[in-house]
Amino acid sequence: MTLTQRPVGELLRQWREQRRLSQLALSLQADISTRHLSFMETGRSSPSRDMVLRLAEELEVPLRDRNRLLLAAGYAPVYGETSLDAPEMAAVKSAVRRILAGHEPYPACVVDRQWNLVDSNAAIQLLLTGVAPELLAPPVNVLRLSLHPQGMAPRIRNLGEWRAHLLGRLRREITVTADEGLSRLHQELVAYPCDDPETHPEDDVVVPLRIAHNGTELAFLSIVATFGTPADITVAELSIESFYPADDATARALVAFKDEQRR
């Protein structure tokens, strides 16, 4: 099957406009003339391999899409996409597992670029009480799991705030990546019912996750981490989300939950 490939100049122009940069601004960042950039975008000039990579770096194009730019320009991709189960990914998997295990008794999970669950620690089970089994069938999408009416949503006390927070994050990722799969996921999520208004907190310095558990309310703050110098697409697209107790009662409940699991 032959796939229609858009010209590299058209793709470069799309990414520049996505980043809301003028030709002048990008040419100054990349240290090239505006005329040269214009010729590349219109197809009057063909960019070299190094030029494609330079412009992609200035435009902060994701590694997956840098490969697509290279292919469109007639060059071989330079970024690999290695399975996490491959031997050469052993150090990455080990680092991720150490982070997850070291974070217990607090919940933590790893997701890929589509927000599908890659790994988690045992404490994440505390957040999944009452979730419909079909939502836990692989691939588990953590955004769908959070906002679906048969997922975590009925237990989230500040669903409007948390929903606004998650959808905002997703929209920002769509802006950065121009990923059509994420756009479809956003369309699905916004269609889920929510009686709680999508508001933003007035008093909290961050948006907490407030969730019902055994007749009480647990409150969490979350921190998202990524690998700092990825050279592989798989690694670049991994995110680790760690949940921390926002109060002493939640911290005690998490310790008690871990003790119950040990019995």
From TrEMBL:
It comes from the Bacteria. Gene3D superfamilies: 3.30.450.180, lambda repressor-like DNA-binding domains. Pfam families: HTH_3, MLTR_LBD. Residues 12-66 form the HTH cro/C1-type domain. One of its GO terms (molecular function) is DNA binding. This is XRE family transcriptional regulator. It comes from Kibdelosporangium phytohabitans.
